[in-house]
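Sequence, please.
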């Protein structure tokens, strides 16, 4: 049974994720948008920590909050003036965006509801074994059937290309 304190903490963190996510996409100042994204990613890491997934929470902070947001801010500072406002959206683009958002909400709601009904009908599997850190590390660096070495290296090459592109853009100025 969950304690009242943990439920309140979860609600506070969930509200923070929702508020910062909405602020990240609605603010007209691009540097503020990146800052709100950073706060949303930190709050997501807090959810992982509350669920007991310390490794995943640490990865969330190190990779996304630490690395990706810094990359976003670096590219923002290289390509535009951080104090400038973005242009206002036309009403046609707002309508298309709203329709797309409602459609994606419907798809997410349907997938969540259908997944929950499938979970209720599963037989009791008893105690499940959580993977150890050694197993996670071996899977991440494995090139076998369920290994993640190739995607890991592809992301490394992509980030290297972004860094080189940033240097090229910076040298032109």
């Amino acid at each position: 049974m969950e304690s009242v304190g943990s439920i309140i903490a979860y609600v506070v963190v969930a509200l923070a994720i929702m508020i910062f996510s909405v602020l990240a996409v609605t603010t007209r100042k691009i540097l503020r948008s990146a800052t709100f994204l950073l706060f949303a990613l930190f709050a997501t890491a807090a959810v992982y920590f509350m669920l007991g997934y310390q490794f995943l929470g640490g990865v969330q902070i190190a990779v996304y909050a630490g690395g990706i947001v810094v990359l976003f801010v670096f590219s923002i500072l290289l390509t535009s003036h951080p104090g400038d406002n973005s242009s206002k959206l036309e009403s046609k683009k707002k309508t298309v965006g709203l329709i797309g958002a409602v459609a994606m909400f419907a798809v997410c709601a349907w997938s969540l509801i259908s997944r929950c009904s499938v979970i209720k009908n599963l037989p009791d599997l008893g105690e499940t074994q959580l993977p150890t850190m050694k197993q996670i590390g071996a899977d991440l660096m494995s090139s076998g059937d369920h290994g993640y070495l190739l995607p890991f290296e592809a992301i490394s090459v992509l980030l290297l290309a972004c860094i080189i592109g940033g240097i090229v853009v910076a040298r032109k100025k």
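Residues 91-120 form the longest helix (30 residues).
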